[in-house]
Specification:
4 strands, four-stranded mixed β-sheet
Length: 133
């Protein structure tokens, strides 16, 4: 079994050397272009997810020819049990249908509940505290 440290090291290496299709998709996901922050090669132990939106719990996977559907099914079930939804796109989709891929991601972002909300601080400072007269 791989250790957590080994998994994080592998994720760092994958961020340094993304596939060409991961680079293409990242150009659209980076810098909050779809209205939400995404991370690349995010560890959700014991897995590494290609892209992850923490605010929505959305995982995006770019599946190449070597992806194992049985492994993916097991991973997706685990992620779902943790409250995360995984979307899979083939290399072909990312290469030939980026607009369709982005539309599906935007739709999922709209339909996923926020994992946390911006709430007022539970213990606000008393009115006027800290203010000088």
């Amino acid at each position: 079994m791989v250790t957590e440290d080994e998994l994080y090291a592998r994720a760092r290496e994958m961020r340094r050397n993304p596939t060409e299709l991961e680079k293409r998709l990242w150009r659209h996901l980076s810098n909050t272009q779809l209205g939400h922050k995404f991370r690349r090669q995010q560890v959700i132990f014991p897995y590494i997810c290609d892209f992850f939106c923490p605010a929505k719990g959305l995982v995006i996977e770019v599946d190449g020819d070597t992806h194992d559907p049985v492994y993916d099914e097991r991973r997706d079930a685990y992620l779902l049990s943790q409250g995360f939804l995984a979307l899979h796109f083939s290399n072909h989709d990312v290469f030939d249908n980026m607009d369709g891929v982005l539309a599906a991601i935007v739709d999922a972002l709209k339909n996923r509940p926020d994992r946390w909300s911006v709430m007022p601080h539970p213990n606000p400072s008393p009115e006027g505290e800290g203010l000088s007269a």
